[in-house]
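Appendix B: complex inputs.
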Amino acid sequence: MMETTAEYYPLEQPDELTLRQKEDAMGAYLMMFAAIGAGLPLPNINLAAAIIYYYINKSSSRFVRFHSFQALIATIPTTLINAGAMFWTLHIIFGDWHVNSNFKGYIIAAVIANLAYFVIGIIAAMKARKGIYYYYMFFGKIAYQKVFSIKSGDDKKEVPVNLPPNL
Amino acid sequence: MKLSITHQENYSRGELLLRTFFGFIYMTLPHAFLLFFFGMWSAILTFISFWVILFTGRYPESFFEYQVKLIRWNIRLNARRYNLCDGYPSFFIDGADDRTSFNMDYPESLSRGNALLKAFFGWLYCAVPHVFILLFRLFWGAILSFVAWWVVLFSGKYPEGIHEFNVGTLRWTTRLNLYLTYMTDQYPPFSGREETNDGNNS
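Resulting structure:
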């Protein structure tokens, strides 16, 4: 327990966060609608938007950074699945590939993955709006490790520049 | 919402000619290229903001700030494109400009019903009537701009009435844009005049 507090920054509590920070954290999850907003049905638009959003908020509070990073890495699997679905579909429409059971199975799996991603994303957005940390399975730990672990260089920055005189 | 473009005492004839013949290459093209990407981001934020307003009744503050800064950039560019002021517009959303200004108070709350109404019928009760009137205004503005161009070329002065008219057109289109992109609930007036503090047009 002692090691945990020594290695990680403390978590902000909901009453310590401003409404703006909560809204910014919520916005990270809503980037899953970016492709619809841009009017381009390309799966990688969501990933690009999540990356841009993360870099915009990189210097923001740890709460916003955590949610932005979690939303970003959680976008990667669905982006890959959707890109695969799109690649396959385009080959069927324009190429000489045919609809088979494998394709149907893949599309059904892609739909389920997207639905799960959507539902979990909405839950995370609502929690973030309330100032609550919501950890995704697997990705939550990575995001926490990335944002909250105290790196060796961080200690140096916290040494105060101004010190009282020697009395 | 406050939008103003400084009416200069004297305008540069050299800059006028430069903008007219080469402005597209050295000014419009580089800005438009960047604005396309920033505009796409703006469209994404607008779409997300609509849903946020629908559920929370608020436009996310950081999104709002981005949109305001992007409008400032557009105004900086358009002011030069329409020869309303001299100088080269600064790049990016944090760019400064002492000849144009655009300010808008952040609305603490927005109507969810109004957002829905705009999303489904905004084009009908707002965009269509405004655009219809604006087409005539833009046509007349183009004629006046042509006249102003010659006046600036020969006298170095931009007629104040024409300047105010063209700034008014920009103000009108900006207000329309603000309303349709959910940034305000105030229906845009059919006027290009500056608003007074009580919300009426001066």
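Chain A has one domain: 13-148.
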